[in-house]
Design a protein that fits this description.
Elements: E1 18-22, E2 25-28, E3 33-36, H1 39-42, H2 51-63, H3 74-87, E4 94-98, H4 101-118, E5 126-131, H5 139-143, H6 148-151, E6 163-165, H7 177-192, E7 197-202, H8 219-229, E8 233-237, E9 261-264, E10 276-280, H9 282-290, H10 304-319, H11 322-340, E11 347-353, E12 356-361, H12 377-387, E13 390-391, E14 393-395, E15 403-406, H13 414-432
Parallel strand pairs: 3-13, 5-6, 5-7, 7-8, 8-9
Antiparallel strand pairs: 1-2, 2-3, 4-10, 9-10, 11-12, 12-15, 14-15
Length: 434
């Protein structure tokens, strides 16, 4: 029988039937327990199966199953107030809700283009992005992504986007990683002509495409200054690294930098509902309003049940101090992984912040030479680990490869940390054995 789901199957991905999930664990159709060390697509933060989230969604559906997105409902009102009062950076006071990260990135870019157009700067149409990166699967977001494997089959049809390197300390040719990347960004701005550049889009900490790439201190401050100098909007993609994943509410908080517009989802709904937010400053919103421009909604954006789920997820994160726990547990997990792989000939680096952690596997630790793509090392490692009862998230872009991502729920325990380390060591050893 021909498979109907997914639309096109992956040869490297045998079908998996997950029947239920609870806490940090998934259970397949045979009843086998699988530790969700991936957090799905690095989205599950409060754990699976929280009845109070389900109750909030049920109540929302009964109370108001659907209303056109711009209209206010009690569920939307509560979420907006919680975001503004308890979560968002102080300068980001305007909120637009979408169903997913790709929609959010598209909206963020449209806001940037509208902002400049409203000021009579219609020549400002370019968005500079970075490589490696991933911003979404819609055509616009994919064009902005430095991710070859996700663009495969579409690359010929995507518009060319000016791009610059993301800070990648392990492989940067200059020991001054931040300065090197800022200089290239400055050169790119002048090469494109600052009068044509509308925004600079980047993940504050690169997610799965590069594998938890953390820029050095000073990088983001310099980028902020460069954007201000040339009247370019700083556009932050915190879809993966926002809402506590890196041990801070948002990754940019680490450097005390605020963007002009930010998109952040995944952890907002915690895996319970499709919801993402686009957050902007009063300055940006006022310019649009003065020009009579709006930000168009999607049919199922700000769905009342999704808003209710997100409001409850944020309440739980605060009540149980799970962001602080992610910081502490992540530091412990990263330390154990670093120790376990300290002398491993095929592990180049363990890196990350909070519970966004990556392990980069190489053919040779000294030269940093990668395995060939057809060795399928990432698939072999994740398959071996899955067979041992732990799910990891495959990272990389195709050219950047063999990166194993770890992004479990924030409330994993000491036993889970030990199991993650033990399983990943065994899987890496099996996949790299000669």
């Amino acid at each position: 029988m021909t498979a109907t789901w997914p639309f096109a199957t992956f040869a490297s991905m045998p079908p998996v039937h997950i029947e239920r999930a609870k806490g940090a664990y998934l259970y397949d159709s045979s009843g086998r327990e699988i530790l969700d060390a991936a957090g799905g697509a690095v989205a599950v933060n409060i754990g699976h199966g929280r009845a109070e989230v389900a109750d909030a969604m049920r109540d929302a559906v009964v109370e108001c199953s659907y209303a056109v997105p711009p209209w206010l409902t009690p569920q939307r009102q509560r979420l907006l107030e919680r975001l503004r009062d308890d979560w968002l950076p102080p300068g980001l006071t305007r909120i637009h809700l979408t169903a997913g990260g790709s929609e959010g990135v598209e909206t963020l870019v449209k806001i940037a283009l509208e902002y400049h157009a409203a000021r009579g700067q219609t020549e400002k149409t370019k968005i500079i992005a970075r490589t490696p990166s991933y911003h979404g699967t819609t055509l616009g977001a994919l064009a902005l992504s430095g991710h070859e494997s996700r663009r495969f089959g579409l690359d010929h049809a995507l518009p060319l986007i000016p791009d610059v390197p993301a800070p990648y300390a392990l492989r940067c040719p200059d020991p001054d990683v931040g300065g090197h990347c800022v200089r290239i960004l400055r050169e790119k701005i002048h090469q494109e002509d600052p009068h044509t550049v509308a925004g600079f889009l980047a993940e504050p900490i690169v997610g799965a495409s590069g594998g938890a790439l953390i820029p050095p201190d000073g990088y983001w401050q310099a980028v902020r200054a460069l954007c201000d100098e040339h009247d370019i909007l700083l556009l932050a993609d915190e879809v993966m690294c926002g809402f506590g994943r890196t041990g801070r509410r948002f990754a940019l908080d680490r450097w005390g930098v605020e963007p002009d517009v930010m998109v952040a989802g995944k952890g907002l709904g915690g895996g319970y509902a499709p919801i993402t937010g686009v957050y902007g400053t009063e300055t940006v919103a006022a310019v649009l309003e003065e020009a009579g421009m709006n930000v168009m909604f999607h049919t199922f954006a700000a769905h009342p049940a999704a808003c209710a789920a997100a409001d409850k997820v944020l309440e739980i994160l605060d009540r149980e101090r799970l962001v602080e726990r992610a910081a502490k547990t992540g530091a412990t997990l990263k330390s154990h992984l670093t120790e376990a792989f300290a002398q491993h000939p095929h592990v180049a680096e363990v890196r990350g912040a909070g519970l966004l952690i990556a392990v980069e596997v190489v053919e040779d630790r000294e030269s940093l030479a990668r395995y060939r793509a057809d060795d399928r090392i990432t698939t072999r490692i994740t398959s071996s680990a899955f067979g041992r009862g732990v799910s990891f998230y495959p990272g990389g872009t195709g050219s950047q490869r063999d990166i194993i991502m770890i992004g479990p729920p924030f409330n994993i325990g000491e036993r889970d940390v030990g199991r993650i380390v033990e399983t990943l060591v065994a899987a890496v050893n099996e996949a790299t054995a000669t």
